[in-house]
Amino acid sequence: MENLKNENQVVNLTKEDFVSDQIVKWCPGCGDHAILKAVEDVFPKLGKKKEDIVVVSGIGCSSRFPYYMNTYGFHSIHGRAAAIATGIKIANPKLSVWMVTGDGDCTAIGGNHFIHAVRRNIDINLLLFNNRIYGLTKGQFSPCTFRGTVTKTSPQGTYEDPFNVGELVIGARGNFFARAVDNNTTELTGICFEAYKHDGLSVVEILQNCMIFANGVHDNITGKDVRDDMQVKCEHGKPLIFGKNRDKGIVLRGNRLEVVKIGENGITEADILVHDKTEKSTGIHMMLAHMMPPEFPVAIGVIRDVVAPTYNDCLDEIIDRETSKSNIHTVDDLLNSGSTWDIE
Q1: Would you call 143 helix, strand, or coil by DSSP?
Q2: Are 287 and 256 in contact (CB under 8 A)?
Q3: Can you identify the CATH homologous superfamily of domain 2-217?
Q4: What contacts 24+ positions apart, CB below 8 Å, involve 250-258?
Q5: pLDDT digit string (tens) for 69-125?
Q6: Do strands 231-234 and 298-305 pair parallel, antiparallel, or not at all (unpaired)?
Q7: 167, 244 Cβ separation under 8 angstroms
Q8: Do 236 and 303 touch, CB atoms closer than 8 A?
Q9: What does the pLDDT look like over 248-283, one tens digit per residue?
């Protein structure tokens, strides 16, 4: 479907063209504000008319997004955004479809739709805001809430292990997975544009802060005093080096990843694992998605970007093939085919 992304005449729009006239009703300090600004920066780069972009959401704080973008939008029902987005893309493949959802909306009631949209490789862009809580419904734990977290619905602490979104995507045979943080809008803008360029379903997990019900849940990753040591940037063709002094790295030892310090035990930059986002095998990508503090930094950036047939391409191919074999091309052809009789 890549040709459809570029078939329209390129138009020159600015960020201001995509700013809605609606009052943004998120809490002050919510990470959603930063994500909104990043997406407003991305959309002019698409070179598309506003009417050729659709933002689809489910239910939750993140799902107010369609109101705040001056494009077509669809605020659907709880957990069903993937189904709506799929229908829109199949009905009108030239549209750039963006699905905006949260960890509760997408991985709980919407989990089945989510994994099958990933498996089918529908050509849509999915932004998943992960604050590890249900925000709009006032602080229940979600499938991404860490074990032991005290919430409105787990006053003694949760006793479930959370989903890792990256593992879920890759395990569902996903071909594009990236991770970003809400307090680095420049980086997030670039990642969202890479997601757009991918032909097929792209998932961008955004570590987002909820000021009211999960404030600071990502501080051990995004805090100014720790982010250099707790984030490793995945850049295709570059070694996985991180740290305030750029003296730490990720190496592959056997079938597992390890953190090493460059200059110790004979380790040099040449020993550091070079990131390959296009590797078809899921092994290393799954391990990168799995990395979490305190043992590992979190992998940020495009972790996986693999070329594969899209559902849209396959559907078009089947329709063309069956149409070419059939003598029926219109409703009139159908009505006048086969045996007919008159009723008197």
Answers
A1: coil
A2: yes
A3: Thiamin diphosphate (ThDP)-binding fold, Pyr/PP domains (3.40.50.970)
A4: 250/291, 250/296, 252/284, 255/283, 256/287, 257/284, 257/287, 257/288, 257/291, 257/296
A5: 999 999 999 999 999 999 999 999 999 999 999 999 999 999 999 999 999 999 999
A6: parallel
A7: no
A8: no
A9: 999 999 999 999 999 999 999 999 999 999 999 999
